[in-house]
Structures are given as C-alpha cells and as structure tokens.
Amino acid sequence: MQNRVQILGVPFSTLTFEETLHKLEQDLRGTTPRHIITANPEIVMLAREDAAFMALLQDVELITPDGIGAVWASKYYGHALHDRVTGVELSTALIEHCAENGHGVFLLGASPQSNALAVQNLRHRYPNLRIDGRDGYFKETDLPEIKAAVRGFQPSLLLVGLGVPRQELFISKHKSELNVPVSIGVGGCIDIFAGVVKRAPKLWQNLKLEWMYRLLSQPSRWRRQLVLPKFVITVLTDKNRKK
Length: 243
Ligand code: UDP
Description:
The protein is of the alpha/beta class. Helix content is 50%, strand content 16%. β5, α6 and β6 form a beta-alpha-beta unit. The two termini are 22 Å apart. The structure holds uridine-5'-diphosphate. Uridine-5'-diphosphate binds next to α9.
C-alpha cells in the first residue's frame, strides 16, 4: 500500500505532520467514519502477541508514529520517517481547525474531573468551539447511554482516551454506529488538555527524550517502558528488516 512503512507488521503512515493534518481536515467533512491510531512501540509489541489486535491495526485508516521508537525503527524498513506525528499535537491542531470551521468535538475518556477540566479549558481557549465530553470510567451497562450522548452531539472529531488497547477496541467496535467522521485514540491527552499531566518541556522534546521525562515524572509507568528495549531488540533481530 502507498504511504505506508511496515514496522514489525504494523503499517505506519509515512505522511508528514502537515500532510496528515491536511488529510484529516478533509476527512472531518466526510461521511465515512475513519479510525486513526497514534502508535508507539507499546502498541506494536501488543499487536505481536495478539492476532486480533494486529488485524485491527491492519484495518484502520491511518497509524501515525507517536514516538521516537517508530521513527527510529522505520529506517530499517525501507522508508525513514522524518518525525513523529503525536496524538497531542495532532489533536490540538484538529481541535483548532474544528473551532475555526464549526465542527463539533467530543472528548471521551479520563476521570470525570479531568474530562470536565479539559472541556472547560478548551472552551476557554476556543470560545467558538462546540465541545462536550464524558469520562472514561464507565461500565458496559452505561454503553448505550454513552453512545446516545455521542450520536446526539454529532461531533466531527471524537477523541477517545481510555488507554491502549481499550480505546482502539472501542472505536473499532462502535465507529459505524457512532458515525463520527474522524475518531482518534489519544491515550492520556485529555489529562494534558486538563492541565493535570504536563508535557515534557520543549528542550526534552527536541532532544527526543519525552519518553524519559514521562518516566521520571510518572514513575508508575516504568514497568510499561520495559517494552522499549524489547522493541529495539525485536527490530534489530527481525529477519525482515533491511540492513
Ligand atoms: N482511562 C479511562 N478509563 C479507564 C482507564 C483509563 O478513561 O478505564 C484514562 C486515564 O484516566 C488516562 C487515559 O485513559 O486519561 C490513559 O492514559 P495513559 O497515560 O495510560 O495513556 P497513553 O498515552 O500512555 O496511552
């Protein structure tokens, strides 16, 4: 397929940030529900252990490299990606576009406090933005009500922050019913919009050390980061990689 580089079987988009944004701005006006994943090594390694999740990844509209791991690995697979297309940057730019063009945005995920704060902060930042949200701590029995809330609001952009892989499974399962033009799994981005979690300072981002900043500022994540060396070894020993 064009505009893709396969990293350990996961088809990453080779579009730049600007190209991705341009494509999604068009998609916001469309009628086909599109599922976007901003993927890191954790998602790739999960897919290697779970065939159904790998099949889901191979079926979505677009997978962007949300992290230096995928950018690093891409050079071994025939198409060196230039930079990351992160969930937080992509969703910020799309929210701004929605505010300017009258598209609705729905945030699904994070704690009730964090979700309400994120909605409030974004309303404050973009007074013209039509936005609503709902926290991500719901039970299976709440699903009909949640789906009705999303459908009733008719957003063009649905940002789902339930953690990996729950957010991907949620979008994949419900996207045709919800019928939102663009749905993106955004992990902890709603907490960032709420100001509850801070992004790494620019210097750390420029040094490509955002992952280390997150590890130091949220030590409970260290266990999850163990997947990084495993990812590196898997790429370096992969028979399908190019030298
Ligand atoms: N979360 C949620 N419902 C749950 C579990 C998690 O809404 O049942 C939220 C959690 O509050 C956080 C996000 O999902 O806002 C996951 O954040 P994390 O930092 O783990 O995501 P990452 O960006 O690392 O995928």
